[in-house]
Every structure is written in structure tokens, then in C-alpha cells.
Design goal:
The complex is a heterodimer of chains A (404) and B (364). Chain A is mainly alpha-helical and 404 residues long. Chain A is built from 20 helices and no strands. Among the domains of chain A are: 187-311, Serine Threonine Protein Phosphatase 5, Tetratricopeptide repeat, CATH 1.25.40.10; 313-404. In chain A, helix 15 (294-311) packs antiparallel against helix 16 (314-330). The termini of chain A are far apart. Chain B folds into 4 domains: 1-73, no CATH class; 85-165, no CATH class; 173-234; 243-261 and 275-353, Alpha Horseshoe (Serine Threonine Protein Phosphatase 5, Tetratricopeptide repeat), CATH 1.25.40. Chain B is elongated and about 85 Å long. Chain B has 364 residues and is an all-alpha fold. Chain B has helices at residues 50-72, 80-107, 110-128, 136-149, 152-168, 174-191, 194-212, 217-233, 236-263, 271-293, 299-316, 319-334, 342-357, and strands at 12-14, 37-39, 46-47. In chain B, helix 1 (50-72) runs antiparallel to helix 2 (80-107). Classes of the chains: A mainly alpha (404), B mainly alpha (364). At the A-B interface, helix 3 and helix 4 of A face helix 7, helix 8 and helix 9 of B.
Chain lengths: 404, 364
């Protein structure tokens, strides 16, 4: 017994069992306090003030968000340890580089931070870091800053702010041209700019088209296609050609539009993009219809419908079948017309598209009735007792005749 | 029976300890030893010798003499109304002691602040109990007084008591935590534990930001204090960066002060404002010295700091010093082509010159 007591008295407390001040703080303090204190202890006070302001902004945004909005689904930034840790690491590195005068390193760290935040609710953080990278006085024309500006243009475009996007994309393209840098895959950075600008110009053109400002629209759409060709990305090219074609179609130049749509169809085909292909076929058909070439129109639409069937694109199938049905009923072929209307109705049901469903139902009913009554048309027009009798007979004996 | 010096001390009468009943021994107000003197005016305060009596009179007793009478006389403490009144009196006493102690500390009279701080602490313990959070400000005050005198062991004990009280109450407000961390930071710097000091000053800045905001003067002072620790560690780049931040902040503050000063030249200055200006002046002086000693002199920062000092002395009314610092600032700013401060500095110097050559400066 005494020996045990002695050993307790004499035993030294091993150094590993005492927690250091840092470990204690890690558990006891909130993540926000821990990060802030760490940054200040290492002397990075500007990173501290930046983080502090970001956290304040987060709190304010959450306070202003309406209840049960998606902004409030995530926990507040002050509680997300990994994000705070990443911010701290890169901001401290950026501050150290700033003190040493290494501007490119500063931009790189900020670019990294901008790329890190991918969650849709964290977009404001991405914006903050990209702006802080691209808008710098020293180092604002470096490669990282240019990349940041491209990212900004992309983000603004995705959010729908096309004018800002255009502004940033143009500036970034100029910088990329001056710099002549390569992106990680070895292609020149300016091609990214061309692609972005292509998208932006054609989207802007679409907007002007909707506002019926045809001149600006055509100019922008053409510019968009030109940039897209330079950019070298086939899908962007195809999309911009498509939009340009739609523009030409609405202004009435169907020949040129059809040429463009054919090119689109080729590009989409090479990209195996069935939706795009179907889209272009539909547009070609519309142009052919306006020109009066119904045969070709029907052929193309049937080709498109088959494609939809094969790739199981129910909504598009519903749409195209509806169009086909309308055309057939216009050329007085009710059987074919009803066939397509029924196909459209079935596809709309599968795709749960209520509007298309209703349309298909109405058209189907309309056409079938007309086809049915056609044989009895003469009876209906002559106002004699025999014709009425025959009509009544027919009504009683007819039952539910199935057309298709 | 002691000679009565007019206006400086109270009359003290001698007492015989043996004359008191058992259990009613009296102890000295300041050192808690056996008491031989009694204050003639209130008769409830006791001292062991004339020195302590004089020190207490100068420290705080002159102001609280009569208040102590009602608090310390044993009365009927079972009546809740009487008890409530007693508590209110004690709270009032604590407040007065705190004010006295703080004013003496800001004047730098640490020795004289001791009696007030002691009284504050004792009354707080009396009122709130031994280990409660309301004692923390009293502990911090006493620790500051002792730190000025260099009694570091006492300071260590007081601050650990305060830290314990804070640890037991984690939901404490940020302001008290901030004050505590600042005192701890000061203490560890004096002792030489620079890493611990850094930890405490970082916490101090964090809580100051939480409580008062990122741009407040408390945060700026915090930056300055942590820069001092980095200075002692020898990390000049960090110090430089922190000093430029502090200088920028004071620049903004002084600009606004200068504008209001130029609009109302004779506005009276509050006590708090005066104290802040004294602190600001000291901070700026220390920063200027540091920057001027650097091998790679940052002319922009020197210009900024010197201009800040010039503005401060202009507002205080000392034109000679304004011109001194103004010329230093001008020299430094001229070294940088097209520096944005050159014009304001020249304007200020011209203003000073015109005010000095006027026959009656100031009154318009």
C-alpha cells in the first residue's frame, strides 16, 4: 500500500498528458474565436480583419434572408471549421506574400480561394475573392488575376447579369491576349475568353431579339458566332449558330437561317447531343413550313420524332408529335394526324407536361370528331326528315368506335 | 490628539486594542494588521500608523469618509428595506472608488490608486461574494495599480482569481473578457512570457472587435499593444504592418477631429477625450521612433505618423510642436513623388504660421 502511495507521490506528470494552450482553445472556444486568435497570434492582422468582415456580412445576410429560404439551410459560416481553416490558410499566405512584395503569389492564393467555394449558397464568397484578386492595383494584370476575371465573367453570366459579364470578359480577354498565357491543358488562355464572349454575346443578342431590337440583336449574334468559332469549343459554336439562326428566322430570312441550322445539326450530331439535334431539326422544319415546303418539313419532323423515341426524350417527342399532327390535319390527312396527336398525348403524360397534354387532348378530340362526322356531313346539311332519321340511327348504333 | 494639518488630513485618534471586546478587534484599512489609530471624522475606519492613515486619506478616504459611516455601522440588518438601502450605498461606494482609482491610474499615480482599488475590491467581495464575476473589474483595477508599482507576484495572484471567475461564467460579455485579456497581456509582457502575452493580446483584439467593432479605438490600441510584443520578439515586418494600420486609423480619426476643431475652435474637451489624446500621442511617438530607427525607412509611413502628430498638437493648441512635426512630415512626404499628403501638410503649416503671426490668435 505504501509503495503505491509513494509511486503516486513521486510520479512525474508526463508532458503528453497536459494539453497545450492551443489544444484547449481548440475545444473550448468557438471556431470563429479560435481562427481569429490564431491569425492574430501569427501577426496576420489584415487577414483577421478580412475574415471578421466576411463573417459579419454572413450574419447580416442571414438576418435579412426570408424565413425558410435556402440561404438559411446551411449552418452559419462561423460554425464551419473546414471553410474557416481554408480561408485562414490562404489569406495568411496571401498576406505574407503581400508583405514580401510577391504580387503573383497573392493573386494565386485568392484565386484558389475563389475556386474553393462551389456551393450555390457560397457564391457571394467566390465573388468576393475573385473581385479581390482581379481588382488589385498591384498584380491585377497577372495570369491568376486574368483567370479570376474569366471566372467572374462566367459567374455573372450564370446569374444572368450579362452586361457585367461582358465587361469582365472583354477586359480579361485583352489581358489574356497581352499575356499570352496557357491554361492547365496547354491551350492559350484567350480561347477561354473567346468562348465566354461567344456565349455572352449570343445570350445578349437573344435578349435584344426578345425586346425586338433586331439590328443590335443581329450584330451581337453575328459577333457571338464569330467569337465562338475562334474559341474552338464545338458546343458553344453550335449554340451560338442556333441563336443566330433563330434571329434570322424571326427577321424572315429563312434561307440563311436554314443554312445555319444545317450546320448546327452537323455540329450537334458530331457532339452526340440529341437534344440539340432535335432542336435544330425543329427549327429547320419551321423554316421549311414558312417557305411552303411541307413535304420536306414532314420528313424532317418525322426524323426528329424517331430520334426522340430512340433517346426517350418524352417532352420533345410530345412537342414534335403535336406539330406533326397539326401539319397533317392542315393537309387533310386526319388518320395520320390523329395518330401523331395520340403519340403526343402519351408522351406528354409520361413527361407530366400538363399544358402539352391538354393541347394534345383538345387537338385529338377535334380531329377525330371531324374525321368521324365527314361522312355524315351531307346528312347534317340537308334539312330533311330522312337525314335526321339516319343521323339518329347512326348515333344509336355507333358505339365507341376506335379510330387508331 | 494628532496635530490637525489644515485641509490635508483628518484628525486621527489613538485607540487601545485591548479595550475592544473579544471578537471585535479592529484592523488597518490598508495592511490588515492590528490598528492603533481611528479616523476622528467617521470613527469607523482604522489604521495601524500615521503613514497608512495619510495614504488612505489622499487615496480615497477624503471622498468616502462620510459614506462609510452609514455602511459600516452595525444596524438592523433583518429589515429588507434597510438591507436594500445598504446594498445601494455599497454599489454607489464601489462606483466612486472605481472612478477615483481610474483617474489616478490615468494620471500615472499608481501608489495613490491602491487604497481606492483595495476599497473597491473589499466592498465588492462584501456585496457580491468571494468568487463572482462582478469582482473581475475590481481585480483588474487593482492588478493594474500593482503592475504600475511592479508587484508582479500580487498581480499574478489577482489576475488568476479574475481568470477563475471568468472561467466559471463562460457567458460573460465581451467587454469584461477584453479587459481581462488586456491586463493578462500586460502582465505576461512585463514578466517576459511573450508567447502567452501574444495569445492574450490576440484575444483582447478579438473581443474588442466583437464588442466595439473593427474600427474602434479599443481595437486600434490592441493592435498597438500586440505590435509592442512583436517588437520585443524582433519581428520587424509584422510590427511595420501593424503600425501602418494603426497610423491609418488614427489619421482618419484625427482628420474628423481637425474638421470639428476648425468649425468650433473653443469647444471644451471631455475628460475621456483628453485621456484618449494622451494615449494617442504616446502611441504615435513610439511608432515614429521605431520607424525612424529602421534601416529601410518607409517615408510614406513616417510622413503619415508625423502628420498625425502635427494634427494632434494643432488641436491641442501647441503650435511649436505642430511646426516641428509638420516639417518632419513634409520632409518625408517630399521624398515620394506626388504623395497625397504633401498638400494637406503644407496647408496645416500655413495655417499654423498665420495663426502665430495674428495678434490675437483663436478668438473669432
Amino acid at each position: 500500500m505504501k509503495k503505491v502511495l509513494d509511486s503516486f507521490r513521486n510520479r512525474k506528470v508526463s508532458a503528453s498528458s497536459i494539453l497545450s494552450r492551443k489544444e484547449i482553445a481548440l475545444f473550448r472556444n468557438s471556431p470563429k474565436q479560435f481562427m481569429c486568435v490564431e491569425m492574430l497570434q501569427d501577426g496576420y492582422h489584415r487577414s483577421f480583419s478580412e475574415l471578421f468582415t466576411l463573417l459579419r456580412t454572413d450574419v447580416e445576410q442571414r438576418a435579412n434572408a426570408p424565413p425558410r429560404s435556402p440561404r438559411l439551410q446551411e449552418p452559419p459560416l462561423a460554425d464551419q471549421r473546414e471553410k474557416l481553416e481554408t480561408i485562414r490558410l490562404h489569406l495568411c499566405r496571401a498576406e505574407k506574400a503581400e508583405r514580401d512584395g510577391a504580387w503573383t503569389a497573392v493573386c494565386e492564393e485568392r484565386l484558389h480561394l475563389g475556386r474553393y467555394f462551389t456551393h450555390p449558397m457560397d457564391l457571394w464568397l467566390s465573388f468576393h475573392f475573385y473581385h479581390s484578386c482581379a481588382d488589385r492595383v498591384f498584380g491585377g494584370r497577372s495570369k491568376s488575376a486574368t483567370e479570376a476575371r474569366f471566372h467572374l465573367a462566367e459567374l455573372y453570366r450564370q446569374q444572368g447579369d450579362l452586361l457585367e459579364a461582358r465587361d469582365h470578359a472583354e477586359r480579361a480577354l485583352k489581358q489574356a491576349e497581352d499575356g499570352g498565357w496557357l491554361d492547365p491543358e496547354g491551350r492559350p488562355l484567350r480561347l477561354w475568353g473567346c468562348r465566354e464572349l461567344g456565349e455572352i454575346y449570343s445570350l445578349l443578342g437573344e435578349a435584344y431579339l426578345a425586346a425586338q431590337d433586331y439590328d443590335t440583336a443581329t450584330m451581337l449574334l453575328q459577333l457571338g458566332s464569330k467569337m465562338a468559332i475562334e474559341g474552338g469549343d464545338k458546343s458553344v459554336e453550335a449554340e451560338s449558330f442556333f441563336r443566330e439562326g433563330m434571329g434570322l428566322q424571326s427577321s424572315g430570312d429563312h434561307q440563311a437561317a436554314m443554312e445555319l441550322f444545317n450546320i448546327c445539326a452537323e455540329l450537334f450530331g458530331s457532339l452526340q447531343d440529341v437534344k440539340g439535334l432535335v432542336k435544330s431539326y425543329k427549327a429547320i422544319a419551321k423554316s421549311l413550313e414558312s417557305e411552303g415546303n411541307i413535304e420536306e418539313c414532314i420528313k424532317i419532323l418525322e426524323k426528329a420524332a424517331d430520334l426522340c423515341q430512340i433517346s426517350d426524350l418524352q417532352e420533345l417527342l410530345a412537342d414534335i408529335s403535336l406539330t406533326l399532327g397539326c401539319i397533317y390535319s392542315d393537309v387533310n390527312r386526319p388518320l395520320k394526324s390523329c395518330e401523331y396527336f395520340l403519340q403526343s398525348y402519351k408522351a406528354a403524360c409520361t413527361a407530366r407536361e400538363v399544358v402539352l397534354q391538354h393541347k394534345a387532348q383538345v387537338k385529338l378530340g377535334h380531329t377525330s370528331v371531324h374525321a368521324l362526322i365527314k361522312s355524315y356531313n351531307s346528312e347534317m346539311e340537308t334539312p330533311s326528315l330522312t337525314s335526321v332519321k339516319r343521323l339518329v340511327d347512326w348515333k344509336e348504333t355507333r358505339g365507341h368506335q376506335d379510330f387508331c | 490628539m494628532e496635530p490637525d494639518e489644515p485641509g490635508t488630513s483628518a484628525v486621527a485618534t489613538e485607540i487601545m486594542p485591548l479595550a475592544f471586546a473579544k471578537g471585535k478587534e479592529k484592523y488597518c484599512e490598508l495592511c490588515q494588521r492590528e490598528a492603533y489609530l481611528q479616523c476622528a471624522k467617521c470613527q469607523v475606519t482604522f489604521y495601524c500608523n500615521a503613514d497608512h492613515q495619510q495614504a488612505d486619506w489622499v487615496g480615497v478616504h477624503e471622498r468616502i469618509c462620510q459614506m462609510l459611516v452609514s455602511i459600516r455601522t452595525m444596524k438592523d440588518i433583518y429589515d429588507p428595506a434597510v438591507r436594500k438601502r445598504n446594498q445601494l450605498r455599497k454599489t454607489h461606494l464601489i462606483k466612486i472608488c472605481k472612478l477615483v482609482a481610474q483617474s489616478k491610474l490615468s494620471e500615472g499615480k499608481h501608489e495613490e490608486a491602491l487604497p481606492a482599488a483595495h476599497c473597491c475590491l473589499q466592498t465588492s467581495i462584501d456585496l457580491y461574494g468571494p468568487n463572482t464575476i462582478q469582482l473581475v473589474p475590481a481585480y483588474i483595477l487593482l492588478a493594474e495599480a500593482n503592475m504600475g508599482l511592479g508587484n508582479l507576484a500580487v498581480v499574478a495572484e489577482l489576475l488568476s482569481q479574475a481568470e477563475w471567475a471568468v472561467l466559471k461564467n463562460p457567458e460573460l460579455g465581451a467587454s469584461i473578457q477584453q479587459q481581462l485579456h488586456r491586463s493578462l497581456g500586460h502582465f505576461h509582457t512585463s514578466v517576459g512570457n511573450l508567447e502567452t502575452a501574444l495569445h492574450h493580446f490576440s484575444n483582447d483584439i478579438y473581443f474588442a472587435c466583437e464588442e466595439y467593432g473593427l474600427d474602434s479605438s479599443a481595437t486600434t490600441k490592441g493592435y498597438f499593444l500586440i505590435a509592442n510584443v512583436f517588437n520585443r520578439q524582433g519581428k520587424a515586418t509584422i510590427v511595420h504592418s501593424l503600425y501602418s494600420e494603426v497610423a491609418e486609423r488614427w489619421h482618419k480619426h484625427l482628420n474628423s477631429l481637425l474638421e470639428t476643431h476648425q468649425k468650433h475652435a473653443d469647444s471644451s474637451v471631455s475628460f475621456y477625450e483628453k485621456a484618449q489624446r494622451v494615449e494617442m500621442e504616446e502611441m504615435l511617438r513610439v511608432m515614429l521612433e521605431f520607424e525612424q530607427k529602421q534601416s529601410r525607412r518607409d517615408a510614406a509611413l513616417i510622413a503619415l505618423i508625423a502628420y498625425n502628430l502635427a494634427m494632434l498638437w494643432f488641436i491641442n493648441g501647441d503650435f511649436h510642436k505642430t511646426q516641428d512635426f509638420g516639417s518632419t512630415a513634409l520632409q518625408a512626404s517630399l521624398q515620394i513623388p506626388k504623395h497625397k499628403l504633401t498638400e494637406p501638410i503644407q496647408e496645416l503649416l500655413q495655417q499654423v504660421e498665420s495663426l502665430q503671426t495674428e495678434p490675437q490668435p483663436g478668438s473669432d
